[in-house]
Known about the structure:
The structure is a homodimer.
Chain A: H1 10-23, E1 32-33, H2 36-43, H3 47-59, E2 63-66, E3 70-73, H4 84-90, H5 97-121, H6 124-140, H7 145-161, H8 165-187, H9 196-208, H10 211-234
Antiparallel strand pairs in A: 1-3, 2-3
Helix pairs in contact in A: 1-3, 1-4, 2-3, 4-8, 5-7, 5-8, 5-9, 5-10, 6-7, 6-9, 7-8, 8-10, 9-10
Chain A binds a DNA duplex through helix 3.
Amino acid sequence: MTEQRKRHPAHQSIAHEIGVAIATGRYPPGAILPGELDLAESRGVSRSVVREALRMLAAKGLIESRPKAGTRVRARADWNLLDPDLLAWMFEGEPPMAFVESLFQLRMIVEPAAAELAARSRSTRHIGRLGHAMEVMEEAGLSSPEGQAADQQFHNIILEATGNDLLISLSGSIGAAVRSTTLFKHRKAKQLRDSIPLHRDLFTAITEGNPAAARAATITLILQAQEDTESSLQG
Amino acid sequence: MTEQRKRHPAHQSIAHEIGVAIATGRYPPGAILPGELDLAESRGVSRSVVREALRMLAAKGLIESRPKAGTRVRARADWNLLDPDLLAWMFEGEPPMAFVESLFQLRMIVEPAAAELAARSRSTRHIGRLGHAMEVMEEAGLSSPEGQAADQQFHNIILEATGNDLLISLSGSIGAAVRSTTLFKHRKAKQLRDSIPLHRDLFTAITEGNPAAARAATITLILQAQEDTESSLQG
DNA sequence: CGTCATTTATAGTCAGACAAAACCGTAGGG
DNA sequence: CCCTACGGTTTTGTCTGACTATAAATGACG
């Protein structure tokens, strides 16, 4: 028994499969992918399932269908790169170095500002949850699954504390990507520097309501992650 | 002949219709929307079309379907708020004040940083295109459709000049929302202050490769837009 | 009163058919 | 010789109707 952790409906699996193929460049922009009937037959599902999967990809800006013309991969500029699913799909292959850099550049823009906001408008409830995540990280360590989950949550709570819905949504997207880069780092089996003290600095800054310190701590945190990731990519 | 601007397939129209209903709160998070058969019958289309529309909404994180349980609107935190379509849908009603504020807060975080980057890494090609957009704006004025299009393009080119794919994708999203807020401002028929001189300041800063000036000009620009929008919302 | 089997409503999947659109090669005219 | 107009043909778009799988709700039983 293979312990199928989650029973995805078929259209979801197909969307994932084709989505990864597009995101990793097997179907480059401009390419026309096989007809619906071919796709259905080759995956052993019905045409309806394939069509629903294609609609999902179209909703993310990946493809564009027209009668007789077929289904074409749209230009990368039209892709919804901030979509969490798409972001995850891109990391299923070896993501291009440039893309990883873009990601860190975005984090460097958004997260320090978010930390600043969070330090201003955090509630006691947020502080409590942050503290809890902090404890879990310190006890379980960042190499354990639960520690990593707490890490994710830690950053999500910060964005949540900003009270800005759009930033919260970004949280989901960036979180998906960070989770992927983390997997990536561990694939290459380097021992990483311990980022827990930096997390604690950030936690303290937010608790004390010190925006400048929160910004500084976040910048340090991201820089370290970036260095670790890039050294992994080269090794 | 009514010049039907674009012949949308049916599933797209249905997705738009249901999407707007959800985004504007007619189906609040947690609500269960009518069964697929009901939806199909009430809109006069087949169940396949409805299902494809629902898959599109699911791809944007709006809904979640399970057999017997029906299709439920997911929590707002799960929505893909940065999706350009969804963003546009939210502005089809009267967007909540808090949401407009979130949008400007995000712009205030992203766009100054982007302008800074653009001032560093712009190419002569970008400068040329920016200059062209600038001219169109100055000749046509910001109240004309072509002037507004040039305005959109102006900001898109800046983000493009950053060379960061994720920021470019954000450009599409923010652009969609800004276009909506612009419509919004004009609905309320106030005369807005002329932002063309500010645009020219920004253009000059980027052309000269002056990151600090580019950042400052962008901040001024956004602040003015925010004030105009908020005064419109109150009037 | 709680646990487990049964019922049953709903999404999920399938098959086959027809409609509509638009690309492409061809034929006709300038 | 080129350009235009026209069909034919391929592919997505839509419809229909049926069956399956799932899980919520219900009722029986300990």
